[in-house]
Each structure stands twice: as C-alpha cells, then as structure tokens.
Amino acid sequence: MNRDPLSPSEAVRWYEDVAVGDRLGPLTRETSRLQLAVYTAASRDISLIHLDPELARASGLPDVIVQGSLKAAFLASLATAFAGEYGTVRRLTVQYRGVDVPGTPVVAHGVVERLDPERGFVECRVWLESAAGDEATRGSASIELPRRPLTQAGDGARPNG
Amino acid sequence: MRRDTDHVRANLNCEPKPFTARIETGDLLRYAQAVGASEPWFSNEQAARASRYGTLIAAPTYLITMRVLLTQSLADAGYTRPLPNSVDGGSEWEYLEPIRPGDTITGTARIVDYIERETSLGPALFQVIDITFRNQFDQIVVRERDTWIFYP
Q1: pTM for the whole thing?
Q2: For A18-52, what is each residue's pLDDT tens digit?
Q3: What does the pLDDT read at residue A136?
Q4: Residue A128 sits in which domain range?
Q5: Does the residue A2 lie in any domain?
Q6: Residue A44 lies in a domain
Q7: Is the model's pLDDT at A111 over the cut of 80?
Q8: Which of A106, A160, B68, B96 has fewest C-beta within 10 Å?
Q9: Chain A residues with CB inside 8 Å of B52's CB?
Q10: Which CATH number fits the domain that encloses residue A140?
C-alpha cells in the first residue's frame, strides 16, 4: 500500500506503523547535463565520461552518462525521506546494471520487504526507474526507526534524543 | 579478462596511505543541494540546529567527495588501472555515526578482489575496494565497499 508521505521535520515514522509492502516514494529526479556538471563540482568526483560526449562515445558509451554515485544519492534521498528526522539509514547498497544518459527524469521507488523487530530495522528494496521503464539501478536500504513509546497518548510525542 | 596477472596482483598488494579531509559547512550544503537532499539537517544550517542532530550532518553519500583523495592515495601507492576504461558498478555503505561540520575524516582503503565477468560492455574485470572512514575520535563513521568495472 502507498501511505501518505510524512514531512520528516513535522512527523515521526514509528517502527510499529510500518508494514511489509509499504512503499517508499516515488521520488522523481531530473538528470540534465547541467546537473551532471553541478554534481561533479559538488562531489569532486571528476570523470570526463560524465561531461564530454566525444570522450564518452570513444569509451564505448552511448553519450555522457549519469554518475552512479548521483543515482545512489537519489536512492539515499528516498530512504532518508522515509526515515524522517528520528529514523536513521543504517545501510544502503546500490548496483548499476546499466548506464543512464541525461535528459530524462528517473524515478526512485522502494518497498518494505522485511521487518526486524529485534533491532527496529525496516529492510527495503529500492530501485530507480528510467523513462524507458528500465530498472537498471537496484539496491537495498536498512532503516532504523524509533519505537512508539508504550505510554504515548497522542500524536505529539517525539522519541528521546 | 584475466585476473591472475602481475598487474592485478600488484594492485591487490598495494597499500594506499590513509587520506584525510576536514568537513566544512559549505561543502555539506553544496553537496546536499546538488543531490536534492532537502531535509533540513542536510540542507539548512539554521533549521538543522533545531533538529535532533543539533547541527548539519552529511547526506548519506557525501563521502563520495573524498574519492578524489582515494584516487591520489592509490596512485601514490603504485596502483594502476587494470584496463583503460571504467564505470562505477555499485557500492555498499554502512552508516555508524553522523558526520558533522568540523569533523576530520580519515579513510583507509584496500583493494580486496578482482572478478572476471561478461558485461554489456564486453568482457570486464570487476575491482572490489573496501574503505573505512573514521572521525577524529577514532570512531568508524562509515564502512564502504565499491565495485568498479574495467573494460578494454
């Protein structure tokens, strides 16, 4: 089921409120050439296959390609939005099984696949969907959520710390 | 692609020196803006003070900014690319402590494996590298494993 997104700064997502099958996102992100350049500057991860089309094609690629780490950052945003202020992304894995060229948006999705009540962890499958419907970027996220206090009476409660 | 070459063996045996960076507020904000990490504790210094963190913290993939230091450290240790071209194959991150402005983060890295595989780019060599990041209190903040795909 697709629950209403929580505003991380205003709401708490309690571990007890999450169920297997709950969805993360969707979260749409643009992938323009300008963004690849901005990301290169911010990440200091400089590789010309993300900036120079001729060099990218000479390397066997169809065009400049979206940085893998930028796609990972999109999936990280999906996970942090789900975690909210009082949750913590504990683990993120990402595999890039294909390349993405800029110019079309990608959409980050996720689904809760398993709950770990001992640790309060929510185990999610996450992926990026391209405009063509490919899901070449796939991974997982482990998100630690706060426990609902036993004495909580209203919606205004916040976890300690 | 052969993994049992002198070249590959030399890379597996190379010992890159630790690499260090100080975490600056402006760098955290610039990175958060570039990736669209919009939660206030990543993207708004003033609002972050009112969050449970009390300060800005780094967005989850921020330590990518230290990759350039890793590359230099590898080169200084004698590492050479096993094949001319490469793309990012994927990463795994384990997050143990938040990273804040003023922290000094030190990474230590080691190439742990090479795997031969067929890919859409042809026969390729997958290079696996483990990186551990510690803060100035010697706490491990992030454990990372990266896979790079090298092809002719």
Answers
A1: 0.90
A2: 999 999 999 999 899 999 999 999 999 888 888 99
A3: 85
A4: 15-31+67-144
A5: no
A6: no
A7: yes
A8: A160
A9: 85-86, 161
A10: 3.10.129.10
Residues B90-94 have a mean pLDDT of: 97
Q: How confident is the model at residue A99 (pLDDT cuts 50, 70, 90)?
A: confident
Name the band, by pLDDT with cuts 50, 70 and 90, for residue A8: very low
pLDDT at A60 over 80: yes
Q: What is the mean pLDDT of residues B50-70?
A: 97
Do A134 and A98 meet the contact criterion of CB atoms below 8 Å apart? yes
Domain contains A6: no
Interface of B with A in 115-134 (CB under 8 A): 120-122
> For residue A60, which residues of chain B lie inside 8 Å, CB to CB?
85, 121-122, 151
| Residue in B68, B94, B121 closest to A46 by CB | B68
Number of independent structural domains in chain A: 1
Q: What domains can be seen in chain B, in order of their start residue?
A: 6-22+63-151 (3.10.129.10)
CB contact under 8 A, B37 and A80: yes
Q: Can you tell me the distance from the alpha carbon of A15 to that of A21, in angstroms, rounded to the nearest whole number? A: 14
Indicate whether A108 belongs to any domain: yes
A31 and chain B: CB distance < 8 Å anywhere? Answer: no
Q: How far is CA B146 from the centre of its chain?
A: 7
Which residues in chain A are closer than 8 Å to B30, comparing Cβ atoms? Answer: 41-42
A92: closest CA of chain B, how far (Å): 5
